[in-house]
Each structure stands twice: as C-alpha cells, then as structure tokens.
C-alpha cells in the first residue's frame, strides 16, 4: 500500500494544472495517502524542493490559471546522475510514487524514473493536444476557448475596418488548436503542419471567399519564417489591409473552464485509483469518453493520428 505520493507539474503550464493538483491531493488524502508537492517540476525533484500539502491549502487553487507549484523545462533530467539525486531525495522522504502532470517531455522523465524504481503515473497537461494516446489533454479545451474569444474580438474590429487578419496559434507542430478554432470561428483560410499552404494558396482562397469584409487566415506556430511578409503579400494581392496577430502565451493563461475542470478532476481521481491498484509507468487517457491507462513508453513512441477527417469537416463547413 502506497503511503506517500508526490505531485509535480512540468513543461509548458496550462489551464487545469491546479485543478489536477487539487483533485490528486483530495483523492490521495481520502485514500489515506499523504500527498507532497514538488516545486518547479523535475528541477525541484533534483533540488529537493518539495513539501507536504493539505486539503485546505489546495481548496481554492482550481480557480487560478498557471500552476501554483510552478513548472520548469529541465533538460538536465536526461542525465543519469541528476536523476539518481532526484530518486534519493524522494526515497529520503519515504515517497514511493509520483504523479507527473505535463506533456511529452514530462512523460519521458516519468518513464525514466519508473525504470529507477519510482512508481509513476502521468496526466496529460498541455494546451497543444499533442499526446496521441488521448482524445483530449488538460488545457486544450480552455486554450481553444481563449483563441475563439480572441478571434471573435478580431472579427469585430476587422469587420468594422474591412481588414484581413493573419492569426497565429500555438501548437508545437500539432494543428489541433488551429483546426478546431478555424471550425468554430469560420476562419476563411487555415494552414497547419498537417496541411501547410503556400502564400499563393492563401491568397487564392481569400480571393475566392464569400466573405466581403473581415477575413481570418489562421496559421499554427513554427510554420513560416515571417508572417509580416506573408501579410504584405496578401495585402498586395487582395488590395485589402492585412494585419498580423500572434496570440502567443495568452493562450496558456487563464483559469480552466467548466468542462476542463470536470474532465480534469475525474482524470486525476482515476490516476490516484490506478496508482493504488498498482499501475506504474503509465499515463491516463480519455478515449471515446472513457478513461484508460497506457504505458508511457508506448505513448511517447506513438504516431500522431491523421487529421484528414477533421480537415475535411473544416472544408465542408467553412
Ligand atoms: O507546449 C506548450 C507550448 O505552449 C507550445 O504550444 C509552445 O510551442 C511552447 O509551449 C512554448 O514554450 P515556452 O513557453 O517555453 O516558450
């Protein structure tokens, strides 16, 4: 029977990390397990920066964005000596298991700790929705809402001023945020890594569009060297004033929305139950509305699912 667990958040923060933390703490205590938090992810594990936490301390954190136990990118964790120190720190405190909330990099760290005798379970926390084993990651739903609100606002002003807006979302090589936002907001042009357009293709679509005034060109990050140059070319060809908006880290902030909170609480509670059942080296997924676990080592090797179907739906709808 596990007596003590620790929880960490790692990699890019996302809405819902605090919700997950609170739910794990509550669920652990309700199962007579003492929860600890690690500050700044794997860096804190290495630096022995963790402490015991109570239900009272997490009572209101679910209303906040970001992660109250902080996050860090810590590539040094790939070093065996660094990991040995982290494992020593956990063992000195009598902590046998770790809940790791984050994306790909977080999962890789968890898999390495499993090999070193620590029980681990992952919760998918990233706005990018780029973990192939799960239909949804924690943070995606809220980030999508933030993007939708931003584009709705841009529509107001660009309709008033007869403008085109080139809008860039995050995604880190995964088009899910942009594709879903394009469907919701009716973006006239969509370019994502799964279906990249040339500037000429963007212009052709804009010229063929039924929209008279406001037009949105939605692109995913890390695809083009210079969006301002693309906007200039679009303006020249369409003779319509064109502005660029990079949504940036605004997409990562804010408190998780209701659906995100509900899904996250249930996922986190499931994670604790699975740890108690003896599962380790796995992460929680939601697939077709059901929770399940899958070995992390399999997850990190999985290919990205095809986006063909949802891209066709975008083509049909917009
Ligand atoms: O993985 C989340 C994410 O926001 C990506 O969409 C983005 O590419 C990256 O993190 C940005 O990382 P950082 O905040 O370290 O610049």
Summarize the structure.
The chain has 318 residues and is α/β, with parallel strands linked by helices.
Write the layout of secondary structure elements.
Blueprint: E1 4-9, H1 17-30, E2 34-38, H2 41-46, E3 50-52, H3 55-58, H4 80-92, E4 97-102, H5 104-115, E5 119-124, H6 140-161, E6 164-169, H7 176-185, E7 189-191, H8 199-208, E8 215-220, H9 227-238, E9 242-246, H10 258-276, E10 282-287, E11 290-295, H11 296-299, H12 308-317
Parallel strand pairs: 1-2, 1-4, 4-5, 5-10, 6-8, 6-9, 7-8
Antiparallel strand pairs: 2-3, 10-11
The structure holds 6-O-phosphono-beta-D-fructofuranose.
The site of 6-O-phosphono-beta-D-fructofuranose has 11 residues, from loops.
Main traits of this protein?
seven-stranded mixed sheet; alpha/beta; 43% helix; Rossmann fold; 11 strands; four-stranded parallel sheet
Low-confidence stretches: none
CATH topology of the largest domain: Rossmann fold
Helix fraction by DSSP (H/I, runs of at least 4):
40-55%
Would you list the SSEs in sequence order as H and E? EHEHEHHEHEHEHEHEHEHEEHH
Mean pLDDT: 97
**Strand residues, percent:** 15-25%
Overall number of structural domains:
2
Please state the structural category: alpha/beta
The gyration radius over C-alpha positions equals: 21 Å
* Separate helix tally: 12
What is the topology, as strand order, of the major beta sheet? 3-2-1-4-5-10-11
Instruction: Identify the overall geometry.
Output: elongated
N-to-C terminal Cα separation, in Å? 54 Å
Quick one: CATH class of the largest domain? Alpha Beta
CATH architecture annotation name of the largest domain: 3-Layer(aba) Sandwich
Number of distinct beta strands: 11
Present as ligands are: 6-O-phosphono-beta-D-fructofuranose
> Tell me about the biggest sheet?
7 strands, mixed
Enzyme class: transferase
Cofactor: Mg(2+)
GO biological process, one term: fructose 6-phosphate metabolic process
Pathway: Carbohydrate degradation; glycolysis; D-glyceraldehyde 3-phosphate and glycerone phosphate from D-glucose: step 3/4
